[in-house]
Amino acid sequence: MTVLNSAAATQAAVSPLKVTPASPLFLREDEIRRGIELLYFGYTSMIRGADAILEAQGLGRAHHRSLYFIARRPGLSVGELISLLGITKQSLARVLNDLGNRELVEQRVGVVDRRQRLLTLTASGAALEARLFTELERSMARAYGEAGQQAVTGFWAVLMGLVPPADRPQVEALQG
Amino acid sequence: MTVLNSAAATQAAVSPLKVTPASPLFLREDEIRRGIELLYFGYTSMIRGADAILEAQGLGRAHHRSLYFIARRPGLSVGELISLLGITKQSLARVLNDLGNRELVEQRVGVVDRRQRLLTLTASGAALEARLFTELERSMARAYGEAGQQAVTGFWAVLMGLVPPADRPQVEALQG
DNA sequence: CAGATAAGTCAACATGACTGTCCTTAATTC
DNA sequence: GAATTAAGGACAGTCATGTTGACTTATCTG
Q: Does the CB of B169 sit below 7 A from strand D?
């Protein structure tokens, strides 16, 4: 899956996407609103690409989020997944039951703590997640490519700044 | 509302938030996943701040989005709002009826096209939107301040790159 | 005038979140 | 070893927000 989008990469080297740069007074209301709006439209644009695949499977975005995090951290516990998603046990239960019934996700009893149920993708679950990821990747790789490497660093920095400091370790752990 | 967060602004000048910079191979899967995750957590972190205010009013995020765009573009038509939100007329109708019944939003017949209903906030609607905006602003201003001006430009560039080119004019028009 | 467009309305339905409660099993603590 | 705590599952009801489809009214445009 470590596939370079060569077209986007080429474009990155050649012509970074022009956007109006932030002004020295980049905390003015208009610039705040610009960030709010771009975050809203960017986020919804990115995830919209996977919706068609999900719908064909009779799954929704909630299922996608679970598949994504289980793929990212195989063997994570139900409690850890609840914490990442920020939803209740009961909300996650239905999603996890759906995924289990479709044999996309498997549970094993924890080794160190046998109360835990550790989650992994089955082969077909991994295949579906890969297809969904490819959709997100297409969108993100194009954006990275158009904006350029330096912009990506700024993109990450602002987004991490939006996360309350108390929650940052969890996000960083995911990416360790 | 053009309030500078002086603490954040000072911090911006002094010590931009350190994040692992994007590598030259910034299209590798890990870096794509990092973007996906930060976008998810950043977006949800930002909007979560307004939820308490909304809940106290008996309103939800759908109401907030309508209030936001009506505040941003006073006098926009119902059709324009549908297009911005990407939802159906029937979905918006319920939200707009709620906001009208609470006298937060008013409708006027269009001047150039009398079929249109042009939306504006009432005084109390504007007051509520301002409170909600202040919450988002707090979060965004802190992130801008921590990351620094240059990072903000990159943040905008990547997000605009995520938006399909066909949809970009609409986003830019909002910010004209 | 005929057809297209903007908007409103009613109905039925799906999804994904919530709360609350009860239960089982396993780990921890006294 | 007994009591408490923690992880998870199950069941029930509710709410917010989206969807389709069908129909109406007013207005604009060719």
A: no
